[in-house]
Write a structure and sequence with these properties.
The complex is a heterodimer of chains A (112) and B (105). Chain A is an alpha+beta fold. Chain A has a single domain, classed as Glutaredoxin (3-Layer(aba) Sandwich). Chain A contains three helices and five strands. A five-stranded mixed sheet of chain A has the order 1-3-2-4-5, with helices on one face. In chain A, strand 2, helix 1 and strand 3 form a beta-alpha-beta unit. The N and C termini of chain A lie far apart (29 Å). Chain B has a single domain, classed as Alpha-Beta Complex (Ferredoxin Thioredoxin Reductase). The N and C termini of chain B lie far apart (26 Å). Chain B is mainly α and 105 residues long. In chain B, helix 1 packs across helix 2. Chain B has a two-stranded antiparallel sheet. Classes of the chains: A alpha+beta (112), B mainly alpha (105).
């Protein structure tokens, strides 16, 4: 998926999975998400949607919606093209990436 | 609004908003600095400090997400933070700040 997008590659010791980050260049949680991936030594690819041409961005949002039946918000993490989470909530990222949980809890409160 | 293209001015703007609304600016610089820089970028791109954590086009349809967005009060009342984590309710532990569900329709 996302064949029309050029992702920036960030190398890391652990490249077992294809990890793709859909982000905005202006978003604090997107930055935090990148720091999380790098801290855990995970190779990943990212794109800043706000840097894309409008038609390419629209296509990516439509593709995400069709694939995951969810609206795209940022950051969005897609693993092996099949599993995803939107937003940066550390424990959800740990679960998705099968990492052991850390003590610190980040971002768990929400509304319906 | 063009002055907000300066990150220092964007920070002052956010501080004034927080004081006026009875919120506090998130003391976690690792999160707040990029968000404030994002506000400045949005002001440079679109002329107004649109929410840097949402995908916007800077059109009339995005008036609801000029910082502070229309949803910030409800998010802070319910979650203790705004969508970006820039503004917090007094007493909110910054370590518990993370993404919250999107309230914008």
């Amino acid at each position: 998926m996302f064949d029309n997008i050029v992702f920036q590659k960030v190398p890391g010791p652990d490249s077992r999975r294809q990890i793709r980050l859909l982000a905005l260049s202006t978003c604090g949680f997107c930055r935090r998400g990148q720091e999380f991936l790098e801290k855990h030594g995970l190779a990943y690819e990212y794109v800043h949607l706000d840097s894309l041409a409008p038609e390419v961005k629209a296509g990516a949002k439509q593709e995400f919606k069709e694939k995951f039946d969810a609206s795209l918000s940022y950051p969005a993490l897609v693993v092996d093209g099949t599993r995803h989470t939107v937003g940066y909530v550390k424990r959800f990222w740990e679960e998705l990436l099968e990492l052991p949980p850390e003590d610190e809890t980040v971002g768990t409160e929400g509304h319906d | 609004m063009t002055r907000l293209t300066d990150p220092a001015a964007a920070r002052d703007y956010a501080l004034q908003v927080a004081r006026h609304r009875g919120w506090v600016l998130n003391p976690d610089a690792g999160l707040t600095d990029p968000v404030v820089a994002g506000l400045a970028t949005q002001a440079a791109r679109y002329g107004k400090p649109y929410c840097p954590c949402r995908d916007i086009d800077g059109t009339d349809a995005d008036q609801d997400v000029i910082c502070p967005c229309l949803y910030a009060s409800d998010d802070i009342a319910e979650c203790g933070q705004c969508f970006c984590g820039l503004y917090l309710a007094p007493g909110k532990d910054p370590k518990t700040v993370g993404s919250i569900p999107e309230r914008r329709p």
